[in-house]
Design goal:
By secondary structure, this protein is an alpha/beta fold. The protein contains 11 helices and 12 strands. A hairpin with a 4-residue loop joins strand 8 and strand 9. 49% of the residues are buried.
Length: 251
């Protein structure tokens, strides 16, 4: 069994790391360069940097900030936010990103996934899906969770895989920031129906939630923000806890 990955997430707005609940009530929690370096030193497997207002405000991700963050890292680093064209992706990869995450742009122009996979390779392509469950149906949203679409989570994830996505980053908007646990049933279904890694995001509140999403949710990676940013748990503590529960991790 492959080692499960722990991925701290840096949601960035106006150059600072922020965190909210259910995609609203945003609060500043620290400097992304300092936090990124700290998580790398703690032994995080990867890092995700998402410019959470780039798509909504029509801006490009700050390439210079990506360069600053990358200089302090020795672990894989994914960047997303405001990406719509191949030249955006090329600039981010040159700035030091190891992978690029697309969300709103992928839904508006699915062919972009094919183009990315063709030009850069599927291993560089992460398709992020922010989805909200209501009455048993998971609907994908764009623009940082502000606008619902006609895309359904599972069919859209499958299409993304077929187009060349190397990973799916699934965030449950129902669970985001609540610290009540991940959306394990939906994550498990994605893992069963797709052949590429699934990164689970939204709802981590304690170490047992990660145990749950790796065992019951069948996730390949667990992503979290606030529990790491507020020092509620550390990456080494979490990895040891997972190891104690028989979950393979890199320590």
């Amino acid at each position: 069994m492959l080692a499960r990955r722990i991925i701290p997430c840096l949601d960035v707005k106006d150059g600072m790391t922020v965190k909210g609940i259910n995609f609203v009530n945003i609060k500043t929690v620290g400097d992304p360069v300092e936090l990124g370096a700290m998580y790398a030193e703690q032994g995080a497997d990867e890092l995700v940097f998402l410019d959470i207002t780039a798509s909504h405000e029509g801006r490009k991700t700050f390439v210079e900030l990506v360069k600053r963050i990358a200089r302090h890292l020795n672990i894989p680093f994914t960047v997303g936010g405001g990406i719509g064209h191949l030249n955006d992706i090329e600039a981010l990869l040159k700035a030091g990103a190891d992978k690029v995450s697309i969300n709103s742009a992928a839904i508006r122009n699915p062919e972009l996934i094919n183009q990315m996979a063709l030009h850069f390779g599927s291993q560089f392509v992460v398709v992020a899906i922010d989805a909200l469950e209501k009455d048993g149906k998971w609907t994908a949203y764009v623009n940082g969770g502000r606008i619902p679409t006609d895309r359904e989570l599972f069919s859209w994830a499958k299409e993304a895989e077929d187009r060349g996505a190397g990973e799916i980053l699934f965030t449950s908007m129902n669970h985001d920031g609540t610290k009540n646990g991940f959306a394990c049933e939906a994550t498990a279904r994605l893992s069963d129906e797709l052949h590429i890694p699934i990164i689970a995001s939204g709802g981590a509140g304690n170490m047992d939630h990660f145990v749950d999403v790796f065992i019951r949710g069948k996730a390949d990676a667990g992503l979290a923000a606030s529990i790491f940013h507020y020092r509620e748990i550390t990456v080494p503590q979490l990895k040891q806890h997972l190891k104690n529960h028989g979950i393979p991790v890199r320590i």
